[in-house]
Design brief:
The chain is of the alpha+beta class and 376 residues long. The protein has six helices and 19 strands. The protein has two domains: 27-137, Rieske Iron-sulfur Protein; 165-375, Naphthalene 1,2-dioxygenase Alpha Subunit, Chain A, domain 1. It holds the Pfam family Rieske.
């Protein structure tokens, strides 16, 4: 069996048999790379089980519509987009894509009183940040998001200088978003999943002590709650961190997890820095996708540095992807699972934060700073 077929087949099996999970709406998610959207062109995406039609209007404004005509349910992607309006293939209804407002129903005559502008197709706020088209999906049943309505800020990778380089990575994961997220924050899998000369090995395992603190968001009902691995010297058995050592400055790293799905990492060595934003985005209730955007001013003037970083980053993400594909084979049989201390404590915090967000009640699982110990 070829590797390509194996990946496709396991993703299919996982989507059918993998356990679904409850999804968090009322937030921003990356739908696809913004570079895929040229003026006057559209693309399809699936986000939290919602079919989307995305495009770029003449002038550059992005839009995201529910890929369903409100008349008879045919996908709007089957129709046409002229840079200003989306036209349904079935009956020619025309929609302004940013608001979803219907502008024309060709079948209406002077004998009818129906006002097409009172009809709306589904449309969602869509913004471009860091090379992604971010879409805000409101809570189910919340209704249409009104123009000018206050929304949380669009996520963005931290940057600490005007000049920097950046790169993107993406990988499909055949598991629900919960498995993707706890895999993302799992500190103990590194020496086993990411064994490589340029990263670390099982022989390099040693005990670590890390300090965590809560990130609370009382003003927004816990919308952006999370936790932080406090600023610390990075692991001595991780080769990429050592690269910043050539600048002769102390190296520190800080890692934040923020609901619903975001991991921020910032590494500083004097004026040199590297930062990343990794998201685990639900495609459906049982499948997800990992998106990474990284920015840095390290070795800024070295030719091909972006290509080199992307190559090794892609290998790193692929190792996680392969492990999740193999895990999906076991999850098909719905085994009993466990979380242990201390390495799995961040996963427990995530589940508690998620339930508090979904229910709108509950305290932060961290009452204050916490110290955890594990070997990796």
């Amino acid at each position: 069996m070829s590797e390509a077929f194996r990946l496709t087949e396991l993703v299919r099996v996982a989507e059918v048999a993998g356990p679904p999970t409850e999804l968090i709406f009322g937030d921003w998610y990356p739908a696809l790379r913004a570079g895929a959207l040229r003026e006057g062109k559209t693309a399809k995406a699936l986000l939290l089980g919602v079919p989307l039609l995305l495009g770029r209007k003449t002038g550059g404004k992005l839009f995201a519509m529910r890929d369903l005509c409100p008349h008879r349910g045919i996908p709007l992607s089957a129709g046409w987009f002229d840079g200003e309006t989306v036209t349904c293939k079935y009956h020619g209804w025309k929609f302004e894509p940013c608001s979803g407002q219907c502008r024309e129903i060709p079948s209406l005559t002077s004998h009818e009183t129906l006002d097409p502008t009172k009809i709306y197709a589904g449309a969602f706020p869509c913004e471009e940040r860091d090379g992604f088209a971010w879409v805000y999906l409101p809570e189910v049943g919340a209704g249409r998001v009104q123009v000018g309505e206050a929304l949380p800020p669009v996520p963005e990778v931290p940057k600490f200088s005007v000049r920097f380089r950046s790169a993107h990575l993406v990988a499909e994961l055949p598991c629900n978003v919960d498995h993707g997220i706890i895999g993302l924050m799992d500190p103990a899998h590194g020496p086993f999943v990411h064994q490589a000369w340029w990263w670390r090995s099982a022989a390099s395992i040693h005990e670590k002590t890390k300090h965590f603190e809560p990130l609370e968001d009382r003003e927004n009902n816990g919308r952006n709650a999370g936790f932080r691995m406090s600023s610390h010297a990075p692991s001595a058995n991780s080769a990429p961190y050592k690269l910043l050592g050539v600048y002769g400055e102390p190296i520190t790293t800080t890692i934040d997890f923020v609901l619903p799905n975001r991991r921020y990492e910032t590494i500083r060595a004097g004026e040199k820095w590297f930062s990343s934003l990794t998201t685990i985005t639900p495609v459906t209730a049982s499948t997800c996708r990992i998106d990474v955007v990284a920015a840095w001013n390290v070795f800024y003037y070295i030719p091909f540095v972006t290509s080199i970083a992307t190559f090794f980053g892609a290998r790193f993400v692929r190792q996680d992807q392969e492990t999740m594909i193999e895990q999906a084979e076991g999850l098909r049989f719905h085994p009993g699972l466990m979380l242990i201390d201390d390495a799995d404590k961040p996963a427990k915090w995530y589940f508690a934060l998620k339930q508090a967000r979904l229910k709108g009640t509950g305290e932060h699982p961290l009452s204050g700073p916490v110290t955890l110990h594990w070997r990796s």
